[in-house]
Amino acid sequence: MVSTAIVIPAGPRDDIADTLDSVVCFIPQPRLIVIVDDTGVASTARLADMDRDIRVMPARLGVPEGVFGGLWVKLTDAYRFVIRDRKWDVVLRMDADALMIGHGLEALAAKRFADDPKLGILGAYEFGPNGMKRDWAPSANQLRSEIGLPGLRKPTLRSTLRLLVHKATRSGYEMGAHALGTCLISPRLIEVWEQFGWLNLSVLGHSRLGDDQLMGLLSAAAGYRCADLSGPDDQMAIQWRGLSDSPEALSQQGKTLVHSVRSFDDLTETEIRSYFRQARHGSSTAC
Hints:
By secondary structure, the chain is α/β, with parallel strands linked by helices.
């Protein structure tokens, strides 16, 4: 059996309960689901009552808000907790506006990681679900700014990033390269981050790089590589904004994980979540 740890950051506008319901439905035990609770709502503690495998971890205080370096720092607490809990085959990092919609993703990822010891991250990397080449230029430009002359305003951050870029470049890193935030991570990679002390780099909280962009840099700096698992023929359909296809089409294509459920054409997030919720609870082959 494949063992899976799932890490999900939750903000105040997220329907985290529905996302959790999809994870409990489609990711089999043994599993651990860690919610990094940044909602500011005390009632989220009751999320742990949904399933015995759920742990709710308050987000670290005093860290910059948003989806940039501050989010990376908050998530490092969960990664550290996960690898100290037990040995896992796969770590699934999900955004709260992602949904599991099918079975089998964890087994496929575990095999890929077992077959390639230097594979660190699987997800929407070079290509998106519609086959389009992803553009890393915005993240590359931001990184060049933070390690260049503008970065002198934050000298400690600048020196830290320059060291990481130097190490990553030796592993063939392309500036700005990263998989989108909803992705699968090799536990070996997280263990290396811990060994190097990179899960303690609180200075990264001051970066304007996205947490997924920092993760791509840190993966390459550790000597690991990213690969695609969200192309047209893959199980995942992950893109930055909205769904890549209609809920019906994604289900028929055999996708198992989708992002983002915020919108598709004229469909709202509520309508999209309702479709997938009815599908998983109305089928004898789902939950």
